């Protein structure tokens, strides 16, 4: 064989090797991008599902009534221990999905839980629900506003993950006050 044929063979083999290396690197990058996209899709799905469950609680807390005797408003779901049990179950379920909520919603949910779980399980519950009507309504409105803000940016997964604050959730507990509530 002549030198030109060997040069042609070497050029062909080296070109094939370069093309294979470039193709391999592209495939690795593409797989990494596919994995990241799949991960982000799962995070967005989890967040959407959590927000749908949160919306159910918000809708439950939108219904209020007025006591005909003292003309004070209270949320219908807090008129009896049976109905408040539904709210408590919903709050437990939402607490399991807290990681998928924004920090604002998490804080509002903690405050709402403190109020709901401090309600006495007897006839006094109705009067405590009346006393906390405005605070519960304000927390519900805060949750709704935060939901609207969050829905617009659900697709921004890296930004959400970086902003998620992890707190201890523990506060100093005044046992005298807590004991009176229990």
Provide structural commentary.
By secondary structure, the chain is mainly alpha-helical. The chain is built from seven helices and two strands; from the N terminus they run αββαααααα. It has a two-stranded antiparallel sheet with strand order 1-2. A hairpin with a 6-residue loop joins strand 1 and strand 2. Helix 1 runs antiparallel to helix 2 and helix 2 runs antiparallel to helix 3. The longest helix is centred in the N-terminal third of the chain and has 60 residues. The termini are far apart. The C terminus is likely disordered.
Distance between the termini: 97 Å
Number of helices: 7
Largest sheet: 2 strands, antiparallel
Structural class designation:
mainly alpha
State mean pLDDT (0 to 100 scale): 82
Low-confidence stretches: 173-182
Multimer state? single chain
Gross morphology is rod-shaped
- What percent of residues are in strands? under 5%
Radius of gyration, rounded?
28 Å
Spatial order of the strands in the main sheet?
1-2
Taken in chain order, the helices and strands follow as HEEHHHHHH
- The helical percent reads over 70%
Task: List how many beta strands DSSP finds.
Answer: 2
Quick structural summary:
By secondary structure, the chain is mainly α. The protein has helices at about 5-60, 80-95, 105-115, 125-130, 135-150, 155-165, 175-180, and strands spanning about 65, 75. A hairpin with a 6-residue loop joins strand 1 (about 65) and strand 2.
